[in-house]
Amino acid sequence: MTDRATGTGPRLSYRGAGVDIDAGEAAVERIKGLARGTHGPEVLANLGGFGGLFEFSKDRYREPVLVSSTDGVGTKLKIAFLTGRHDTIGQDLVNHCVNDILTTGALPLFFLDYFASGHLDGDVFEAVIRGIAVACGENDCALIGGETAEMPDFYQPGEYELSGTIIGAVEKEALLGSRKVAPGNLLVGLPSTGLHTNGYSLARKALLREWTVDTELPELGSTIGEALLAVHRSYLGITRPLLDKPWLRGAGHITGGGLEGNLRRLLSKGQSLALDWSAWEWPAIFQIIQQAGNVETDDMRRTFNLGMGWVLIVDRDGLAPLESYLQEHQEPYKLLGEVR
Predict the structure, then answer these.
(1) Which among 17, 128, 141, 338 could disulfide-bond with 108, CB atoms 3.0 to 4.6 Å apart, if both were Cys?
(2) What is the structure's pLDDT at 333?
(3) CATH number for the domain running over 21-176
């Protein structure tokens, strides 16, 4: 083995090839405090090791079922790139994953992120992870680790990829999936904060062929970029107290596929949905997308949540206590139809 280069061509190095190990390590150091701020006593290792350690409480569950989900934020990232705002995209990621496992009745335990770029910008990286840490804190979920990859020539300058994995747990007997949805069950929708993390490929085509992300529209009361970056809402806080109610039959997270596509996952063979599309008015952002892109209504319904990001499926005798609970917590809702 030799301790010096012996080739005759131009001298290369990993840094010269585009990967700066020192900068990567410095970036990870910058976000360690953000991750630690989400840790409880269950987290046994600091960020930066080869694996995150989480001590699962044996006393919290009798028959625990672990529930996992992996997702990204799609081309909503393009809006972050265009606006130069990276502080909320991490919240979108965590909240999306929290909602996905919440449909089973599971509560989040810990989260891991994946961040990859052609060149690691420490400020952008820190802003993204800060958003992840904020959402983890709000959802009582530990940011236990992740992967940071610098891959030259793989991504466009100034762009990055972001995804995450969440692990949660639910008592086996409390699994929402074990409660069969029945004909006559009612569909109660809770409002979204906007597009959440779905439909951005269509939204960008419709809106940005006429305007820019900095265009202010009176109907929105904001710029297009601000409206499109509205944080994907977590429904954990409003739903958690309802999970043990016997009249709650299921919950649907309205993502790609819209109301029908996502709620059909909860139905048994022979069941269908009777949706009342006139029960609510689409928020302005969806109306503008349809008008600007001349999008068919059926396509809008299959692509977007249209202002309803979460649907609770309840027995008829559960509607009154649910309405009382939602009104007490000043949570708007709409009766969207029923199961047939």
Answers:
(1) 141
(2) 98
(3) 3.30.1330.10
Q: Which residues of the chain have pLDDT under 50?
A: none
Domain ranges across the chain: 21-176, 179-339
Residue 129 confidence (pLDDT): 97
Retrieve residue 104's tokens. Answer: 């089973």
Q: Which of 145, 131, 207, 152 is nearest to 17 (CA)?
A: 152
Query: 122: which 2 tokens?
Result: 């420490």
Given this model, what pLDDT does residue 115 score? 97
d(CA 190, CA 306): 11
CATH code that applies to domain 179-339 = 3.90.650.10
pLDDT in tens, 8-18: 677 766 677 67
d(CA 27, CA 35): 13
Q: How many angstroms separate the CA atoms of 233 and 332, rounded? A: 14
Of the candidates 267, 265, 243, the one whose C-alpha atom is nearest the C-alpha of residue 254 is: 265
Q: What is the pLDDT of residue 57?
A: 83
Strand ranges in 12-141 using DSSP code E only, listed in sequence order:
64-72, 107-117
What's the pLDDT at 9? 72
What is the C-alpha to C-alpha distance for residues 253 and 251, in angstroms, rounded to an integer? 7
pTM over 0.90: yes
Separation between Cα atoms, residue 118 and residue 123, nearest integer Å:
15
SS3 70: strand
Locate 275 and state its tokens. Answer: 């949706």
